[in-house]
Structure formats: structure tokens, C-alpha cells
């Protein structure tokens, strides 16, 4: 294998949380003085078990357990086109609302760059970055593939015989690994799923031979011994004692480092009082023990940002993603 450096630096982006009160806004009648006065729906635009779902439920539990929010925070799953369906609905139907907040990550950039949706992070209200997380390539525990070289050799020999489970944005790090391993990224037989939960089922049923996603999505099955990690797409091993023996891609000669980010967004034109409220709550929750425990458990690197720092981070990340996607032939009409 001819080692090639394929490095993509991606920042953890927290998309703006939007809250809408009943009948148009829970605090709109008095300029947000009593905001929030009703429930705020927290949306994970993917299936249960996905990274967005894990993040949404961890965020709600942290906000409630640490007594930061007293009003109800119901969580809903709205899968569809790796977040693009819910994003479009938010843009078209929830403009100016203050009682919805939604989870997001790289797909809000990569889907637009690939030409799969006309909307992106600039079309909603951005609140802040929550954390970064690393990608991991996994296989069933009894897989014949013992390392990345084994997997890439099989893909080069017969791509169709090695289906790889991946959500939309997760194709990027695997594509970079394939290119670094002298395989054609366009030849990889990707099977699309809406999150890690579906990928785990596919792996255990034999529907796919390998999968790639954030560490948190496979953590439970890795610790239970049902899945085996081939590589962490990072420059150093995971800090978790139970997962620290999983080798990095770089240690296997694949110089690829890609960090995903996850965060929160709200509808376009979210009222200023709601923006300030949620920026304040998100900043506070990231310092709490409950949230830090979730971060340690799921191998999240807490990195809260908002305002101009976040804007620069998002813009730089978007540029890097576009460059990386073009390099492996995954950029579309927006590329």
C-alpha cells in the first residue's frame, strides 16, 4: 500500500437551537419575558440509536437533571435523507418559531455540497458547537478482516462483495481511507442507513461486511464483544479503557484524520430572546457533571462554541469538507 496523506480537519458544530412556543412562540407575546412557557421539542433527525438521537437524549437528561430547564423537553425522531428532510421542513414551516431545537452534524454541510439538498447551515439559526467525535470502522466480531489492509484489499479485489454501512456524511472518512489505501473511493459499495442502530443490525445480520460511524454509535456492541474495531480515524487511540486497544488508522499507515462535530440548530429567524436563552443554557450544560459523564462514556470531546468563533469554525469546516469531497469524487452540484 502506498501511504498517502489524506487529512481533513472538521470542527464540532453545534447548530442553533430553535424554540417555538404554542401558537407561534412561547415567549413571543411579551418579548420573551416568560420564555420558555411551554414545551420545546428536541428533534433527532435520524433513527433511535443514531448519534443525533444519543446526543438529543443526553442533552435533555443533562438539562433536566442539572435543573437548567424546568419546562418539558420531549424528544422526537424524524429520520429522512440524513437530516435533509427535517431541515427542509424546518426552513419552510417553522420560520420564526422558538419551541424547536434540532441536532445536527456534518450532513448539514455535506448534503448540500453533494447537491442532495438546497439547504445548509446558513439557512437556519446556529447556536453553538457541542462537541467533536471520532469516526471508527467496525466489523462483526467473527469477521475475516483483521485490519484495514485486509478490508481494503478485499474492496479492491471485488467491491460489490464488501458492502459497507454508512450514513451520508460517514462515507467521507471511509472514502478518504479507501483512497489512502489505493482503492477507488467511487467503487466502494456503500449501503445507506439513518444511524448506528440500523448499521449494527445490518452488521449482525450479515447484510454489510463493515460499517463506519461515530464511536458512540457502536460503543455498546464493541464493549459487549459483538463488534470489533478495525480503526479509529484519529491521530491517537481512544481514552476509554475498554476501547483503547483499537488501533488508529494512522498507526496502520493510513494518514487520515477526520473529526465529526455535533450540535444544535433552530428555525430561521429564531427570536433573539430564544437564541440568547439557549446559548446560555448550552454553555452551562457543557460544564455540568451529567454532560461530562455522557461525554466520557461516548468518547466526545467537549468543545462548545458560539458567536463569531462558531461562525469562523463552521465556515472553515465547510471549506475543508468541500475540498475533501471533491478529492474523492463525492461533491455534487454544490461542489
Automatic annotation (TrEMBL):
Family label: Belongs to the UPF0065 (bug) family.
PANTHER family, per database record: TRICARBOXYLATE-BINDING PROTEIN (PTHR42928), UPF0065 PROTEIN YFLP (PTHR42928:SF3)
UniProt name for this protein: Putative tricarboxylic transport membrane protein
Higher taxonomy: Bacteria, Bacillati, Actinomycetota, Actinomycetes, Micrococcales
Region (Disordered): 27-50
Source species, domain of life: Bacteria
Amino acid at each position: 500500500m502506498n501511504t498517502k496523506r489524506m487529512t481533513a480537519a472538521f470542527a464540532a458544530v453545534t447548530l442553533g437551537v430553535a424554540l417555538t412556543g404554542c401558537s407561534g412562540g412561547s415567549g413571543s407575546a411579551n418579548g420573551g419575558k416568560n420564555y420558555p412557557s411551554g414545551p420545546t421539542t428536541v428533534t433527532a433527525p435520524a433513527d433511535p440509536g443514531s448519534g443525533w438521537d444519543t446526543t438529543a437524549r443526553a442533552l435533555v437528561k443533562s438539562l433536566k437533571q442539572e435543573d437548567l430547564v424546568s419546562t418539558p423537553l420531549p424528544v422526537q425522531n424524524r429520520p429522512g435523507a440524513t437530516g435533509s428532510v427535517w431541515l427542509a421542513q424546518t426552513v419552510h414551516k417553522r420560520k420564526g418559531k422558538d419551541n424547536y431545537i434540532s441536532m445536527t452534524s456534518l450532513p448539514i454541510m455535506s448534503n448540500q455540497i453533494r447537491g442532495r439538498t438546497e439547504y445548509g447551515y446558513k439557512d437556519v439559526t446556529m447556536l453553538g458547537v457541542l462537541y467533536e467525535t471520532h469516526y471508527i470502522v467496525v466489523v462483526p466480531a467473527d469477521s475475516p478482516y483483521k485490519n484495514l489492509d485486509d478490508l481494503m484489499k478485499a474492496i479492491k479485489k471485488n467491491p460489490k462483495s464488501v458492502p459497507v454501512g454508512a450514513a451520508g456524511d460517514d462515507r467521507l472518512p471511509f472514502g478518504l481511507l479507501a483512497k489512502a489505501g489505493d482503492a477507488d473511493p467511487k467503487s466502494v459499495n456503500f449501503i445507506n442507513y439513518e444511524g448506528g442502530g440500523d448499521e449494527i443490525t445490518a452488521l449482525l445480520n450479515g447484510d454489510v461486511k463493515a460499517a463506519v460511524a461515530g464511536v458512540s454509535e457502536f460503543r455498546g456492541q464493541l464493549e459487549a464483544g459483538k463488534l470489533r474495531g478495525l480503526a479509529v480515524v484519529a491521530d491517537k487511540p481512544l481514552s476509554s479503557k475498554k476501547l483503547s486497544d483499537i488501533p488508529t488508522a494512522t498507526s496502520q499507515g493510513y494518514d487520515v484524520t477526520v473529526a465529526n462535530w455535533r450540535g444544535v440548530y433552530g428555525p430561521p429567524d429564531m427570536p433573539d430572546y430564544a437564541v440568547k436563552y439557549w446559548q446560555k443554557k448550552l454553555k452551562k450544560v457543557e460544564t455540568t457533571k451529567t454532560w461530562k459523564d455522557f461525554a466520557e462514556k461516548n468518547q466526545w470531546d467537549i468543545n462548545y462554541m458560539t458567536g463569531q468563533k462558531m461562525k469562523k469554525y463552521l465556515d472553515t469546516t465547510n471549506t475543508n469538507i468541500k475540498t475533501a469531497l471533491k478529492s474523492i469524487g463525492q461533491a455534487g452540484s454544490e461542489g
